[in-house]
Structure formats: structure tokens, C-alpha cells
Design a protein that fits this description.
By secondary structure, the protein is of the alpha+beta class. The chain is 44% helix and 20% strand. It is built from 12 helices and 13 strands. The strands form 2 sheets. Strands 1, 2, 3, 4, 5, 6 and 7 form a 7-stranded antiparallel beta sheet that branches. Strands 8-9-12-13-10-11 form a 6-stranded antiparallel beta sheet, covered by helices on one side. A hairpin with an 8-residue loop joins β1 and β2 (33-39). α7 (284-298) runs antiparallel to α8 (306-329), α9 runs antiparallel to α10 and α11 (367-380) runs antiparallel to α12.
């Protein structure tokens, strides 16, 4: 059964036909969306709320008039299903489909374009029909590197989320290669999950959840248990893990705008201490979270009087310096340079900032810029032996780099010379062959003329 077989028709007839041949996929079974499967999809799971789905579709009025078609544009359409980015009918209909499935959706106005319709395309209070194919779907990426992927099994309530510092009550179930290794109810502070054995990926994902939400979190090693693994859970190094997390309840921490300056300054020392503890334990991602909290609290504060202003600036500079150190350990060299720049903007002779920026630039192979930083360090403190050693390292690396470039260019020029020589030989052989051929033809012509002449 295709759309073209029964269009055009009126709303009442369309409702009757779809009710007889399809299924009501609305949660309340109010006959607002009927679905007829035209081609079954692949057996397996269906999209979950938040998944990125890729579809093809054609939209038609009950008159048979086509008002949109991705197939004609040859451009599949992508969106995060169940997030209110598209028509209600699409969110509900696509969640019922399997990969590769083709179906027809009959959608009442409440689930489509409503009372107003769509100017020039959809008349007010119109039911519409969509032919739809689900090409693919994948979990929602919570990080740019794809290290944390979320798939929502049960949608949460409301619009509020936990924030950094919030107290959260969760139920966890961790799996590695289909083996359950962790199953418990636990309360922890967002940003300090490590204290309760919570991996970084779960800690970072919780602040994107809503109360009552149940989701699957697919964690790459960086956001799971890393290169070390987790011996007490019998998890080896560099293993992917999956956590099913239910956010049972949470109490939000005060936001920066809800605290006065004195309250922020009182909290800073404890947060800095927590960050230092994480850093010493090698938990650099967790340390970053703590230092960034300090900056978010104080960055826009001025204070009253020079003494308080200086105290604020000192705390911000220390936080940026600590961030630079964390980013160096994490091999995030661009961010390390950025943190150092923040310090140097306020204190151009800051020895630690200059040194750490030099380190980051050296590791990015920016040898001349790194040398300039280490030279400035020595201007500030001529006794800094580490900077002197790094300066020698830069000079050595630059020399090594120049030698490599010489070899590369020498090999390049040699190849060009060999190619030109080879091309020249081929050309000479070709010219000789042409001359030989021409001489041969000339001899034949002379012999023919002698034979044709009278004796």
C-alpha cells in the first residue's frame, strides 16, 4: 500500500483507512499518528531518545499535493530524535522504526503543523502524510572526541539539570564485554565522582541528565578507566565500558550569581585543595574541573579596594597556572598555551607561565617561540637551570629539524634530477628513433625513384 493508492481523500476517510491498515503509535493511543510499515527494517534495537537519526522523507497533503521531499533533493535529513527539534509526529514515529524500515505516517494537526499550518505550504488544521525511511541512527555524542556517547532509555522530568558541585543520587550498573562489574546506589558530588570510584565519563554526563532519566553511557578508555584499567573490577587497560545510569534525585549547588564575593573566596581554598589532591593522584581531568570552577566564580569579580582586588587576581592567576600544568600532563598543548597567556596578560614576567608556555610550544615543535619563552625566563631569573636546559634542548631540536629538512630537500632535488635525466634519455631515444625512421623512408624513396627511371 503506497500513499498514491489512496490519495486524494478527506480526513475522515484517511483516518478510517489508516486505522484499518496501520497501528496507532501515539503514547496515549488518541489516533493522532497511524503508521503503516511498507518495508520491514533490520532486526535489532530501535532509536532511543537523543539519538542522531538519518532519514529520507516525502510530505504530502491529503489532496495528494507534495510539499517537501528529501529524496528529490538527494539530501538525507539528520536530527536528534525525541528532543523536540522536529514535528511531534516525527519524534514519535521514528522512535518506533528499525534501521532500514520504510513506513507511511498519517499525522493529525496536533502532531504535525497545528492550527496555523505553514504559510504557502500547509493550510491551517491540516492532516498530512509522510513516507519515511530510517537510514541510520547512533547515540548522542556528549564530547567532541566521541569519548562519551549517550542513549536515553527513559526520558527525565522537567528541564533542570545538576550542575558542578551538585549532590546527585544515582543507580549505576557498569558492564565490560557483557560482564556486570559494578551495580550500586551511590551519592556523589558532580565534579568529584572519582572519590566514590565513579569514572570521569559518568561524572561528566550526569550534569546533562534530568531527574528520573535512565540512560546508557558508552565510554572510551579516556573517560572510563584509562591505560591503567581497574584491577578491582578485573578490567584491563584501554577497555571500553558501558554504564546504565538512573538519576534518582539531585540538589543543585549554588550558581556563581547566587553567591556574594566573600562566600566565593571562602570556598576557593577548599576547591583548590581538592584540585591539588586530584593532580597529585594523577587525576588531571578531575583537577581541571576544580580549577575551572575557581575561574568561573572569580573571573568577573573586581572586589572592593586594592587588597581584595589583588586577592582575586592572585587566585585567578594560580588557577590558570595550575590549569596549564594539567593541560601539559594531558598533552592538550594549545589549551596549556592559552592558560599561560591569561597569566602573562596580567603579569608579563611570570616565571612559571613563561616556562610552561615554553614547554607547551616545544612539545608543539614551535622551537623558535619556545626559545623566546625560555630566554625570557632567564631574563627574569638567570639561575633557572631548568629553563637553561630547555633552551639547549630547543637549539638541539632546531638543529636536528634543519638537518632533516636538508635531507628531505636533498632527496627531493635528487629525485627531480633523476626524473629530468630519465626524461631526457627517453626524449633522445625518441628523437634518434624518429631520425632513423626518416632516413630509412628517404632511402626507400630514392631506390623507388631509381627503379622508375629509364635505364
Amino acid at each position: 500500500m503506497t500513499t498514491d493508492q489512496f490519495l486524494p481523500m478527506d480526513d475522515k476517510s484517511a483516518t478510517a483507512i489508516f486505522a484499518a491498515n496501520g497501528i496507532d503509535v501515539t503514547p496515549r493511543k488518541d489516533q493522532g499518528i497511524f503508521k503503516i510499515v511498507r518495508r520491514k527494517g533490520l532486526d535489532g534495537d530501535r532509536p532511543m531518545i537523543g539519538d542522531k537519526v538519518t532519514i529520507h522523507y516525502t510530505g504530502k497533503l491529503l489532496t495528494g499535493k507534495k510539499f517537501d521531499c528529501s529524496w528529490e533533493r538527494k539530501e538525507p535529513f539528520c536530527f536528534n530524535v525525541g528532543k523536540g527539534q522536529v514535528l511531534k509526529a516525527w519524534d514519535i514515529g521514528v522512535l518506533s522504526m528499525q534501521r532500514g524500515e520504510v513506513c507511511t505516517l498519517f499525522c493529525k494537526p496536533d502532531y504535525a503543523y497545528g492550527l496555523t499550518g505553514n504559510p504557502d505550504k500547509i493550510p491551517p488544521s491540516s492532516s498530512v502524510v509522510f513516507e519515511m525511511e530510517l537510514l541510520n541512527f547512533e547515540g548522542e555524542r556528549l564530547t567532541s572526541d566521541g569519548g562519551i556517547t549517550r542513549r536515553i532509555k527513559v526520558k527525565g522530568e522537567g528541564y533542570s539539570n545538576p550542575n558542578d558541585g551538585a549532590s546527585v543520587d544515582v543507580h549505576l550498573e557498569g558492564r565490560c564485554e557483557d560482564r556486570v562489574f559494578d551495580c550500586r546506589d551511590v551519592t556523589f558530588i558532580v565534579g568529584q565522582g572519582e572519590d566514590k570510584g565513579i569514572p570521569l565519563g559518568v561524572d561528566r554526563a550526569v550534569d546533562k541528565m534530568q531527574r528520573g532519566e535512565c540512560c546508557l553511557l558508552y565510554l572510551k578508555p579516556k573517560y572510563g578507566f584509562g591505560k591503567e584499567g581497574k584491577p578491582e573490577y578485573k578490567i584491563g587497560p584501554d577497555k571500553d565500558v558501558v554504564y546504565e545510569v538512573t538519576l534518582k534525585n539531585f540538589i543543585r549547588a549554588k550558581e556563581s550569581w547566587e553567591m556574594d564575593l566573600n562566600e566565593k573566596l571562602d570556598l576557593v581554598s577548599g576547591v583548590k585543595m581538592k584540585g591539588n589532591q586530584y593532580f597529585k593522584a594523577g587525576q588531571h581531568h578531575q583537577a581541571v574541573i576544580q580549577y575551572q570552577r575557581i575561574i568561573s566564580w572569580l573571573d568577573l569579580e573586581c572586589g572592593t579596594g586594592m587588597e581584595q582586588h589583588k586577592k582575586i587576581q592572585d587566585q585567578i592567576l594560580i588557577a590558570h597556572l595550575n590549569l596549564a600544568l594539567c593541560f601539559l600532563r594531558l598533552k592538550e598543548f594549545s589549551q596549556a598555551v592559552e592558560s599561560c597567556n591569561k597569566v602573562i596578560e596580567q603579569d608579563e614576567s611570570n616565571e612559571k607561565a613563561l616556562y610552561r608556555r615554553g614547554e607547551a610550544r616545544l612539545l608543539r615543535n614551535e622551537y623558535s617561540m619556545a626559545m623566546a619563552d625560555f630566554q625570557k625566563v632567564l631574563e627574569v631569573n638567570p639561575m633557572n637551570r631548568a629553563a637553561r636546559a630547555q633552551l639547549s634542548m630547543c637549539q638541539s631540536k632546531m638543529k636536528e629539524h634543519q638537518e632533516q629538512e636538508k635531507k628531505i630537500y636533498a632527496n627531493m632535488f635528487q629525485k627531480f634530477a633523476e626524473r629530468d635525466s630519465k626524461t631526457g634519455r627517453k626524449k633522445r631515444r625518441k628523437d634518434e628513433s624518429v631520425r632513423s625512421s626518416m632516413n630509412g623512408e628517404a632511402g626507400i624513396k630514392r631506390r623507388r625513384r631509381s627503379q622508375d627511371c629509364p635505364s
